[in-house]
Amino acid sequence: MTLKIGVIGTGAIGADHTRRITNALTGAEVIALTDVNQEQAEKVKKSLGLNATIYKDGHELIEKGDVDAVLVTSWGGTHEEYVLAAIKAGKYVFCEKPLATTARGCQNIIDAEMAAGKRLVQVGFMRPYDSGYKMLKQAIDSGAIGEPLMIHAAHRNPSVPEMYITPMAIHDTLIHELDVFRWLLDDEYVSAQVVFPRKSKYAHSKVADPQIVMLETKKGTRIDVEVFVNCQYGYDIQCSVVGEEGVANLPEPQALSMRKNANLGQAILTDWKDRFIESYDVELQDFINGVQAGKLTGPSSWNGLAAAVSGDACVKAQESGLIEPINLPNRPEFYRS
Ligand code: NAP
Predict the structure, then answer these.
(1) Would the CB of 38 count as within 6 Å of ligand 1?
(2) How far apart are CA 92 and CA 95, in angstroms?
(3) How far apart are CA 19 and CA 4, in angstroms?
(4) 23 C-alpha to center of ligand 1: Å?
(5) Burial class (CB in 10 A: 0-12, 13-18, 19+), 149
(6) CB-side neighbour CA atoms (13 Å) of 306
(7) Cα–ligand 1 centroid distance for 7 (angstroms)
(8) 282-327 confidence digits (pLDDT tens)
């Protein structure tokens, strides 16, 4: 059976996911599209030669489109309403991060999904699908470095536009780290603190940059993450796990090592889309396979809530300068299997 998919929001990632479903993955086709900017949906349809219907809005696509599953890749503020509508229609839904812009919104989705009686939602956290992070996880789980004691990490972007403001360092940037560390450590956060080093001259007036976010987990592991979104030189993700018996580092992306002009060097990526390009493929294929099998196993609505609750505490810590508690409710049995 070929899965029929409808895409809500055909901007950067919506267009890219549509391309991968059409050209790179198996078992699914995009048969419906919508975007507030209809021309953008038309453009994606034409560029990929899709046999797809363009709907007026996301609700019409969910209700009238003959789709088995929905991709929500519109602006973050619209995710909650479309995910709830898809659950109501009994349709599987892959929602890009954030699942909702508030913890309350994530909880509404959890309540609706549990009432529906089965997992229908996968959240677009792709780092657990990255081969490098999988190697790190394996090193931790196998005991190769002993118990993990600390993580030192960095999330660096070359630059950000004027609309990127201080809290977005958490909600838009750190959110991937917030998800992946919980998964790596199989642990939950208990507190967050944010400190601000000297500001870079490349950061505009509305963003404090860089920032250092410090997290503590239930088991006592300490994490420091540098978020530096005007680092100029590239898109660079670093993660070093310090264990009792060794240190495991996230592998660098594969790059040619070149000797030239008395210099030994390797290129560094500059576009976030390239850094995790393979993991986007793997996560979406996993979603397609999960829908086909009637059982989703990727990042769940619970991961969406955990990221939202911890993100809110980090933003509070940015504002207060204090160590802020992170209080995640108990995970329901529904999200344990
Ligand atoms: P984008 O390029 O701005 O695309 C969003 C698209 O959705 C735009 O075409 C926008 O139209 C459209 N849209 C807005 N409201 C809509 C609505 N109510 N119904 C239908 N379409 C609507 O943004 P993006 O970079 O693709 O990001 C989209 C989402 O994906 C965001 O939540 C973002 O955080 C997430 N994302 C995740 C990753 C990841 O690594 N997992 C990476 C990138 C983005 P207009 O432009 O006309 O407003």
Answers:
(1) no
(2) 10
(3) 14
(4) 21
(5) middle
(6) 25
(7) 11
(8) 999 999 999 999 999 999 999 999 999 999 999 999 999 999 999 9
Which of 7, 8, 17, 35 should be mutated for ligand 1, with most atoms under 8 A from CB?
35
Ligand 1 atom with minimal separation from the 40 CA: 9
- Which residues are within 8 A (CB) of 237 and not within 5 positions of it... i.e. 6 or more apart? 153, 154, 155, 156, 250, 275
Q: What angle do CA 139, 242, 129 make, to 5 degrees?
A: 45
> Rounded to whole angstroms, how far apart are CA atoms 86 and 70?
7
pLDDT digits (tens, 9 = 90+) for 211-267: 999 999 999 999 999 999 999 999 999 999 999 999 999 999 999 999 999 999 999
- Whole-number Å distance between alpha carbons of 302 and 294: 19
Q: pTM for the whole thing?
A: 0.94
d(CA 258, CA 246): 30
pLDDT in tens, 72-129: 999 999 999 999 999 999 999 999 999 999 999 999 999 999 999 999 999 999 999 9
Q: What phi and psi values does residue 316 have, to the nearest 5 degrees? A: -60, -40
- Beta pairing, strands 69-72 & 3-8: parallel
